[in-house]
Amino acid sequence: MLLSLATEPFIAPTDRDMLPSERRIFVRTHRTCVFGYRRRHDGPAMSIVYYIPTDNDELLISTMAGRGKARVVERDGKVSICVLDERWPFAYLQVYADATVERDHDLVVDVMMAVAGRMSGQQLPEEARPHIEEMAAKENRVVVRCRPYSTFAQPPRHLHRNDQEEKITHWMSGIVPWDASDHA
């Protein structure tokens, strides 16, 4: 089941690393990410996309079948998703995932409808479905299904004045398994 857009995105703590459960909440309550994948001859490819979280912690991304995202996922299956906080100061959460391409028509349309809702901030009415179905067929849309297996968090940092250097704290964050317990 696709999750609805959260009314309030999770705010990352500024005084400590995010707990594993907070990392999952951060991903579930935001909507944009930098989608990255390996290229054969160059550095990683990256694009900013909307994603749709599901109730079983998968992340779904709509794209055209002919685009690099879909072609590389079919070849490689490993992706990185850098979930962006849209508020200042920015926090981000890197998610490492196994990915597959899905061509199920109903899923493609459902994800496109959900993406439109995230883009506009309000759910699309059911009357829009025929238009979205037509667009999905015309653009040969597919869904990239991402199954997270680990995360890396970066807390928000901001200087309000240039004389605050001694007040900013830094710590090491680590890669944490997606399903890790808060009490590990």
UniProtKB/TrEMBL annotation:
Supply the SUPFAM superfamilies for this chain: FMN-binding split barrel
Entries under Gene3D superfamilies matching the protein: Electron Transport, Fmn-binding Protein, Chain A
Check the record and name the Pfam families matching this protein: PNPOx_N
Residue intervals of the Pyridoxamine 5'-phosphate oxidase N-terminal domain: 22-144
Q: Which residues form a coiled coil?
A: none
Q: Which InterPro entries match?
A: Pyridox_Oxase_N, Split_barrel_FMN-bd
Instruction: Output this protein's name.
Output: Pyridoxamine 5'-phosphate oxidase
Q: Which organism is it from?
A: Mycobacterium sherrisii
